[in-house]
Amino acid sequence: METVLLTFGFFVAVIFAMSIGFIVKGKTIKGSCGGITALGMKKMCDCEEPCDNLKSKIADGTADPEEVARFNKEPQFYEVK
């Protein structure tokens, strides 16, 4: 039981030190390899048809025309290396 508490205390201390470092530097947190933008995608979802939220916006007439136009073209595929 002593080992578990010691380990837990160590992790809490490390997380606390990381949070202090983050507060002092004031930088935003970002990924190490560029994430989804490295694949050439602008958004997380490259779906072939609009989601329910966008469909309701289209029905209301409040949808962004660029976002709607995205679904009227051929699907694009990205090569992942």
From TrEMBL:
Keywords: Membrane, Transmembrane, Transmembrane helix. The keyword Membrane applies. The chain crosses the membrane at residues 6-24. InterPro entries: NqrM. This is Na(+)-translocating NADH-quinone reductase subunit E. It comes from Mannheimia varigena USDA-ARS-USMARC-1296.
